[in-house]
Amino acid sequence: MQPFVTGLHMLLCVALIVIVLLQAPKGEGLSGAFGGQTAQFLNKQRGFDAILVRATVALGFLVAITSIVLAVWRV
How many domains are there within the chain? Predict the structure, then answer.
């Protein structure tokens, strides 16, 4: 069972990296954090961007769960 979870964890990590790299850059960088650009609160995410954000959250959650499971098994 442990090799299966390890393989699943590795696949989830690669998928998370790919999903993050597919997302469009927001273009704000550090200047956006300090008020360098105008924030667009009314701009809603649509289509493919919204799917990528949800996939990132889901994959991040799954990576965290598999990391915890693997850490508990290795103790």
Answer: 1
Q: Does some domain include residue 71?
A: yes
Domain span at residue 63? 1-23+49-75
pTM: 0.73
Question: What does the pLDDT look like over 9-56, one tens digit per residue?
Answer: 999 999 999 999 998 777 655 555 565 555 555 455 678 888 999 999
- The sign one gets for the Cα dihedral 31, 35, 40, 41 is positive
Residue tagged 């667009």 (tokens): 40
Could you tell me if 74 and 6 are in contact, meaning their C-beta atoms sit under 8 angstroms apart? Answer: no
